[in-house]
Amino acid sequence: MGRAVTVATCALNQWALDFEGNLERIVRSIDIAKSRGARYRLGPELAICGYGCSDHYYESDTLLHSFQVLAKLLESPATQDIICDVGMPVLHRNVRYNCRVIFLNKKILLIRPKISLANAGNYRELRWFTPWNKARHVEEYFLPRIIQEVTGQETVPFGDAVLATKDTCLGAEICEELWAPNSPHIEMGLDGVEIFTNASGSHHVLRKAHTRVDLVNSATAKNGGIYILANQKGCDGDRLYYDGCAMISVNGETVAQGSQFSLDDVEVLVATLDLEDVRSYRAEISSRNLAASKVNPYPRVKVNFALSCSDDVAVPTCMPIQWRHHSPEEEISLGPACWLWDYLRRSKQAGFLLPLSGGIDSSATACIVYSMCHQVCLAVKNGNADVLADACRIVNDKTYVPEDPREFCKRIFTTCYMASENSSQDTCNRAKLLAEQIGSYHINLNIDVAVKAIIGIFSMVTGRTPHFSVYGGSSRENLALQNVQARIRMVLAYLFAQLTLWTRGMPGGLLVLGSANVDESLRGYLTKYDCSSADINPIGGISKTDLKNFIQYCIENFQLTALSSIMSAPPTAELEPLVDGQVAQTDEADMGMTYTELSIYGKLRKIAKAGPYSMFCKLINMWKEICTPREVASKVKHFFRMYSINRHKMTTLTPSYHAENYSPDDNRFDLRPFLYNTTWSWQFRCIDKQVN
Asked: Of 28, 166, 493, 581, which is most buried, counting CB atoms within 10 Å of its CB?
């Protein structure tokens, strides 16, 4: 009858401008899809060049190399007898578009440009691309000679059209179009399109996965149909981790689910589905059928090819499954760990160095590296040859097989406790015990000699010696003395990262890991160019509250008992003198606000788009049981003063894994001035008026 169609989607770990690697992964995914009987294969958005090319999209080289890869794909035996759907930038009449190129048996069927561009948060597509604003309109696209020589075609259809095969009709969406209020799948479904495809470049945010799944399922719940979603996965050279989750849905129910986090560069989902399920589902929705009778038809590109076989009555079809979501703690354990692995192997370094203070933040960072080691050993155990080859190269041993996470951790992870006269024995012991339990190569050192040398130079030049406030010094002296300690640690971290392996007779250098959380960055509670300054930071987009929950998760799942004492200790910078041998300085006292309050301020400032006055108005209701309006006003003013005074620090913030939508990352996510009028005179006057 020709009713059972077999389709494939995939999640690929593409890398910006890695045309050779990207081509190999695309071909591998097509090979796998064909071997499992698929007749159509969908890939991620802009997979040929990699999604994160940014301003390289302006370069003609990027367009040229994309077409060169497309020519290789068209010529490849792997792409014969299967409809292939790939993503790349295309210049049409001197306008650059983000496109899907759909081809079959060395013939391009359609080039479909993106209609709704992503231009919020981390996305800047309008900077590089133009949306296709000609609904249901198709033009001729003149192919470059490199493609004409392969296909024998001079022109191909370019625009907003759908494919009509011998047995069904397919329509393409591209990433953001699923999220748009007027998604193309609505009108396409009314016009008889039965299979919707979506090529995405969607990144991980904590607690976001269910939103994407719900959108895909709801796309076909009201209108019927088959929805196929592909996504990029991994770190393609930036702060983002693309989190896979390729999926296939039928009539509002998931039938195939891909992994959200894994070290597999290529993951392919294949499903066989009954077109009659779509047709019978739609037949009884009278409101849909009434709307369909009035719809404006799409141009159809006829394809002499079927996604089904003529005799398929006995072919089994896929049944609905229950989507399994990760908990936020699992997401923190897996997402940043996979991101670190991609960064490590692609940067061709030999491991990581982390200044381990014995506090929650650096301990959480260490646990993420340990989780990465777990993922590597698991991938190798499951037969992942790519991961094994990368691990051998990183440890410089062709015969090496990572089997024990602690042993692998010892080879690629160095931790360093940098004590001063202001450090307590408790934090030293906590850092040492955690290092023992995860297996890292641990160094204990004391920075007092270096600190005294720096202060000595200052005293010799100026004739003045600064003192901590407990010894009669001013607040300026107190802060300067703290900053010297913090900055010395950064200098030593980089020195040891470059030369520690040299001292051990091993080749290579180490990437320095930072461990400032998203809340501290927002408040500016860090020293500029201290240990928060590093090569990368896996927790820079994660809140203190979530990190505490993650630490508890590690205690239970990795049996890291050393974390129990770290959890119970009050967070402290340990930069001021001890009192009777005990820590007197705490983070929350220094900041003048709690970490819980900081998370609330961050979400209101960024996600709710609240300035000082709007934040005050929201908080007098949120906190009416615990604070008077005057107390709320005082807290809001203090936050905005501290935020604006310290905003300049965000310009040098270490590249961090993006995990929260209230991240203050100044690079491209949270664009603000870094020189403020920190009195906020007009805004605060409005608050005072309401208080009175």
From this structure: 493
The residue length of the chain stands at 692
Angle at 658 between CA 654 and CA 661, to 5 degrees: 120
CATH number of 328-447+489-571: 3.30.310.50, 3.40.50.2300, 3.40.50.620, 3.40.50.10260?
Answer: 3.40.50.620
Give dist(CA 553, CA 568) in Å, integer: 15
pTM here is 0.94
**pLDDT for position 577:** 75
Cβ contacts of 9 within 8 Å, gap of 6 or more:
41, 42, 197, 228, 229, 230, 246, 247, 248, 256, 258, 268, 269
What stretches of 592-680 show up as alpha helix (H) in DSSP? 595-602, 612-622, 629-646
Three-state SS at 179: helix
**The domain over range 4-302 is classified in CATH as 3.60.110.10:** yes
Around 508, how many Cα atoms within 13 Å sit in the side-chain half-sphere? 20
Looking up tokens 């592909």, which residue turns up? 230
Question: In angstroms, rounded to a whole number, what is the distance separating the alpha carbons of residues 140 and 151?
Answer: 16
Partners of 310 in beta bridges: none
Structure tokens at 373: 């080691």
Mean pLDDT check: name the lowest of 128-137, 296-305, 414-423, 655-664.
655-664
Q: Taking Cα atoms as reference points, which of 642, 569, 561 lies closest to residue 601?
A: 642
User: What are 286-317's pLDDT values in tens digits?
Assistant: 999 999 999 999 999 999 999 998 777 768 88
- pLDDT tens for residues 45-93? 999 999 999 999 999 999 999 999 999 999 999 999 999 999 999 999 9
Active-site residue list: 45, 114, 175, 357
Host H or E run for residue 288 = helix 286-292
Place of tokens 């107190």: 478
pLDDT band at residue 575 under the 50/70/90 scheme: low
Cα Rg of the chain, angstroms: 28
Residue 247 pairs in a beta bridge with 229, 257
| Rounded to 5°, angle at Cα 219 from 214 and 220 | 110
* 48 vs 66: CA distance, rounded Å: 6
Q: What is the pLDDT of residue 664?
A: 81
